[in-house]
Amino acid sequence: MSIPDPKFMKAAVLAADEGLTLGKGGPFGAVVVKDGKIIAVGSNHVTSTNDPTAHAEVMAIREACKVLGAYQLTDCEIYTSCEPCPMCLGAIYWARPQAVYYASTRHDAADAGFDDSFIYDELNVEPENRSIPFIHLAEESAASLFNTWKTSDNKKEY
Amino acid sequence: MSIPDPKFMKAAVLAADEGLTLGKGGPFGAVVVKDGKIIAVGSNHVTSTNDPTAHAEVMAIREACKVLGAYQLTDCEIYTSCEPCPMCLGAIYWARPQAVYYASTRHDAADAGFDDSFIYDELNVEPENRSIPFIHLAEESAASLFNTWKTSDNKKEY
Known about the structure:
Helix content of chain A: 40-55%
Largest interface: A-B, 92 and 92 residues
Shape of chain A: globular
Strand order of the largest sheet of chain A: 2-1-3-4
Strand content of chain A: 15-25%
Distance between the termini of chain A: 22 Å
Oligomer: homodimer
Largest sheet of chain A: 4 strands, mixed
Structural class of chain A: alpha+beta
Radius of gyration of chain A: 18 Å
Number of helices of chain A: 7
C-alpha cells in the first residue's frame, strides 16, 4: 500500500463538483489510481441516467475495469469524496483494490439527506424485519445451480 | 406486499441457469416483478463483461429502471436465486422495491466459493482494519460539496 496522495482526493472532489454542476446526480466523485496515475474517474449519475446503482465508486470501478480489460482492480487504489455506502463497499470488495481513501463520512452524507448510514444500520437487522423485507422463499431448483457450478470444469471464478 | 409467487422464483433460477450454461458468469439470477408481471430479468455477467458489479440483482434493477424510466422501483418486488450480497442489498435499498424474495442463502453461496458471507462480516470491522483498508483522508474541499447540495434549489433528490 502506497502513501496516500492528497492530489488524488482533490481529483475525486473535482469529479463530484463537476457532476453536481452538470446536474448528473448527487455530490459524489471517485477516482481509481494505479502505478501513481489516475486510470478512471467517476461521479454520481443516478438521477441523470435513471440508474440507482450509478454511484461514483461503481462508475469509477466499471470504467477502470474496462481500461484494464479485467474484473479485478489488482494493485489499484480508490479515492472517493465520501465513505462508500454498503453497495459501493460491496462493489469494492468484489473488485479487490488494495486500499480505499475517503474524505467525508457516512454521517456527513446522512446529514445531507442520503441513506448511507441508514443502510449500514439495516444490514444488521434480521432480513425479514428490515424496512424492505428480505424473505426466504425455498426453491428446490436453486440448490442445483451451486452443485452445477461446483462440479463444473471450465468455470471462471471471481 | 403481495403473496410471493413461486413461479417468479423459478424464473430467477432459470435466468441463473441460462447464464451459467452460456458462460456469462456465476450461478445467480433475478427478476423484477410489478403488477404480477416480470418487467426485467438479470443474471450474473461479471466475468463475461469484466464488470465486478454485474451481479444478477444489479443487472435486473438497472434493466427494470430502464423499462420504467425511473430510478426507483416503486411497487416492485425482486425475486433472486440467492440472498443478495452487501453490494446488491445496497443497490436494492437505493432502488426501493417493496420486498425481496431469495432462495439460497449467503451460506450456500460461501459454500460454493463466493465471498458474500465474508463481505457481510467485513462490514462490521473498523474501516481501517478491514482486509481492504478504508482510510479516512481529510480533504477540506469535500465538505463544500454537501454544503452546495444542501443549499441548491434545483437538486433532484434520490
